[in-house]
Amino acid sequence: MGLLKIDKSKMVEEKVKTTPQNVKEANEALFCATMNLPTAAKHCGMTQKEMKLTFWEYLKYHPRDYVYENLSS
């Protein structure tokens, strides 16, 4: 292999299996803003659209864990 040639077989990422544990970790990381959506989707082995829908469901059924203060007054 030459200096400028790229071995394309080594550029393929492994398929990640979607497990409840991976989804839970990704949802909690998205909620705390420690992971962005593309990274969380890749962590779970989902598409970004699937991860977005899953996260909306997570938000619907999990209460917030912070205090909201109205600063407009």
Features:
73 residues, 0% strand, mainly alpha, 47% helix
| Major sheet characteristics | none
Give the fraction of residues assigned to helices: 40-55%
| Secondary structure category | mainly alpha
Q: Report the end-to-end length measured between terminal Cα atoms.
A: 67 Å
Gyration radius, in Å: 18 Å
Strand element count? 0
Number of helices: 3
What fraction of residues sit in β-strands? Answer: under 5%
The parts where pLDDT drops under 50 for at least 5 residues are none
Shape: elongated
**What is the helix/strand order?**
HHH
Overview of this protein structure:
With 73 residues, the chain is mainly α. The chain has a domain at 17-61. The protein has helices spanning 20-31, 37-44, 48-61. It is elongated, with a radius of gyration of 18 Å. The protein starts with 19 loop residues before the first helix and ends in a 12-residue tail after the last helix.
